[in-house]
Each structure stands twice: as structure tokens, then as C-alpha cells.
TrEMBL record:
Belongs to the VPS26 family. InterPro entries: Arrestin-like_C (IPR014752), Vps26-related (IPR028934). It comes from Echinops telfairi (Lesser hedgehog tenrec). This is Vacuolar protein sorting-associated protein 26B. It holds the Pfam family Vps26.
């Protein structure tokens, strides 16, 4: 960069030391497009070099210092001017002086804490990036490089099934059950719906996956609901005693882990929404929150074997068992 065409022009590039071997992950940008970025996890070291290439070999580059930063920040779209930084690390690469030829500076941020997962939503963005800065009197030269951070979890010790009884008095009475309350992002939701009483002419039933993004605090709280998937589980009128199986594969949908009160700025929660539609186009629904988590690539065989056994045991169950959470099914004449 040069000022009004005078002085030295320099090109800045940030290169990771393990760029050739490090995995990349797709991540949605603010404009909705998908791009690939280098993938990191909590506690991993971030290292590499900042390369400076002078465009005019016969001219020197004067500066007030060169530095690189590792930054984790949250940006709320309704408050664009303020960036909330939860990670901010700085390495000075060169003291004030001048550069007469192209050169590179090594850097290393050791065992960097990256407490949250990268996220781009409807009203908020959480990003991690490296920023190299050449300080100059008139205009700084700045180069940024984004990375993506994934947060891994272990198999939850407590993962009970969800059993619910819902109904409208003297009209509809159903029981439904999901095999777990916590699912990893490539998991399969297995469940059953059992009709105990049917006096409403139901013509259609589906399960929706709803993502609810909550941003801000106090009076400035924004809720954004986004239907990620619609999964038809029945087309036609059910009869009393009928049992409808559910098998919903999560791997095909764009999901993130559940995020709760991230840096006191935002939350992301997921709900399974059971929707019934009668012949008069009235909609009845029941929502149930589920927790999503990201599983690492390497999983102990014993754990996956236990999960398979639990799934088989659930599928082979003849009855839904005890209903632990009675609740009313709501008529969706009002907005969901």
C-alpha cells in the first residue's frame, strides 16, 4: 500500500506453519456463502510467519512497528460499531524502523484458549482471526486471515429419552418418545408416536427442526427462529392404536452445537417441533428442546457400541412406557 502513489508499497501475507497438513472446514459467511477456512480446536497452538514483499526494490519502508494479533470477537449486527473481544493476544514482530528488502517474521501463539465455536447467524457473528499490522504515520497496512474453531464434546453421561403425553381433551390424545435428549451433529433421531385417541380428522404430520437464536440482553433481546428442516412422518388419517416410527438423520442439515449464553451475548438452541394439520388446515404443535453437540473424529469403540445397543433396545420396545411429562398440545391459530 502506498499513499497518493508516493513512497514504498508493500504486500502482506500470513502463512500458517502447518498450512499444507491442517484440515479445512466449510463455514458460512455473512452473505450466506460457504467458504473453507483452516480448522482449529481449543488449546491448539497457532503459528506461522508474516511475509512482507516490497513492491519497489529501490525504496525503503519506514514504519512505527510491526505486530500480529490473534483475536476472538463477537459482533452483534444491531450494534455494528462495537466488537466484543473475548480473546486478544499480541506479538510484536519488529520495533520502529525501516525495511529495505522483503522479509518474513515468525510468530507463535502457544496453546491458545478458544472457548467458543465459530458462528455466523441471523443477528450475530463469532469469529477468530489473525491480524498483521504495519504501523505507519499516515496509513497503517493491515492484513487479516480468518480461521474456524470447532468445539468438541464427549459422549454425554446422562442422555435420557424424552417421553411426553399431549392432547386436546376428548379430541386427541397421543404419546411420543425420542430415544435421546442429546444428539451429536451426525446422529439419527429415533422415535415413536402412538395414537391413544383420535377424534380430529388429521391429514398430515411432520417434525420440524427449529433453530432459535437469541441475541442481546435486557430490553435489547432479539429472537430469531429458523426452520432448518421439515420431515414428513405421516400423510393421511391415523387411527386409534396406530404407532408411527420416526427416523430423522441429522447429517444432511446445516446444524451447529447448542450454544448457551455465549459470553453473555447470544444463545443458539434447537427444538423438535411436532406439527399436526387437520382437514380444515388448523395446525397443532408441540415443541421439545434437544441439545446438539459436536463429536470428535476419533470415538472410542466401546462408546459407539453402547450407543448402537441402546438404539436397538429402543427400537425393539413394544410400548412407550411411563409418560413422565404430561402437557397440552396447543392449537396454532396463533403464531408459533
Amino acid at each position: 500500500m502506498s499513499f497518493f502513489g508516493f513512497g514504498q508499497s508493500v504486500e502482506v501475507e500470513i502463512v500458517l506453519s502447518d498450512a499444507e497438513s491442517r484440515k479445512r472446514a466449510e463455514h458460512k459467511t455473512e452473505d450466506g456463502k460457504k467458504e473453507k477456512y483452516f480448522l482449529f480446536y481449543d488449546g491448539e497452538t497457532v503459528s506461522g510467519k508474516v511475509s512482507l514483499v516490497l513492491k519497489n526494490p529501490n525504496k525503503r519502508l519506514e514504519h512505527q512497528g510491526i505486530k500480529i494479533e490473534f483475536i476472538g470477537q463477537i459482533e452483534l449486527y444491531y450494534d455494528r460499531g462495537n466488537h466484543h473481544e473475548f480473546v486478544s493476544l499480541v506479538k510484536d514482530l519488529a520495533r520502529p524502523g525501516e525495511i529495505t528488502q522483503s522479509q518474513a517474521f515468525d510468530f507463535e501463539f502457544t496453546h491458545v484458549e478458544k472457548p467458543y465455536e465459530s458462528y455466523t447467524g441471523q443477528n450475530v457473528k463469532l469469529r477468530y482471526f489473525l491480524r498483521a499490522t504495519i504501523s505507519r504515520r499516515l496509513n497503517d497496512v493491515v492484513k487479516e486471515m480468518d480461521i474456524v474453531v470447532h468445539t468438541l464434546s464427549t459422549y454425554p453421561e446422562l442422555n435420557s429419552s424424552i417421553k411426553m403425553e399431549v392432547g386436546i381433551e376428548d379430541c386427541l390424545h397421543i404419546e411420543f418418545e425420542y430415544n435421546k435428549s442429546k444428539y451429536h451433529l451426525k446422529d439419527v433421531i429415533v422415535g415413536k408416536i402412538y395414537f391413544l385417541l383420535v377424534r380430529i380428522k388429521i391429514k398430515h404430520m411432520e417434525i420440524d427442526i427449529i433453530k432459535r437464536e437469541t441475541t442481546g440482553t435486557g430490553p435489547n433481546v432479539y429472537h430469531e427462529n429458523n426452520t432448518i428442516a421439515k420431515y414428513e412422518i405421516m400423510d393421511g388419517a391415523p387411527v386409534r392404536g396406530e404407532s408411527i416410527p420416526i427416523r430423522l438423520f441429522l447429517a444432511g442439515y446445516e446444524l451447529t452445537p447448542t450454544m448457551r449464553d455465549i459470553n453473555k451475548k447470544f444463545s443458539v438452541r434447537y427444538y423438535l417441533n411436532l406439527v399436526l394439520i387437520d382437514e380444515e388446515e388448523r395446525r397443532y404443535f408441540k415443541q421439545q428442546e434437544v441439545v446438539l453437540w459436536r463429536k470428535g473424529d476419533i470415538v472410542r469403540k466401546s462408546m459407539s457400541h453402547q450407543a448402537a445397543i441402546a438404539s436397538q433396545r429402543f427400537e425393539g420396545t413394544a410400548s412407550l412406557g411411563e409418560v413422565r411429562i404430561p402437557s397440552q398440545l396447543s392449537d396454532n391459530n396463533s403464531r408459533q
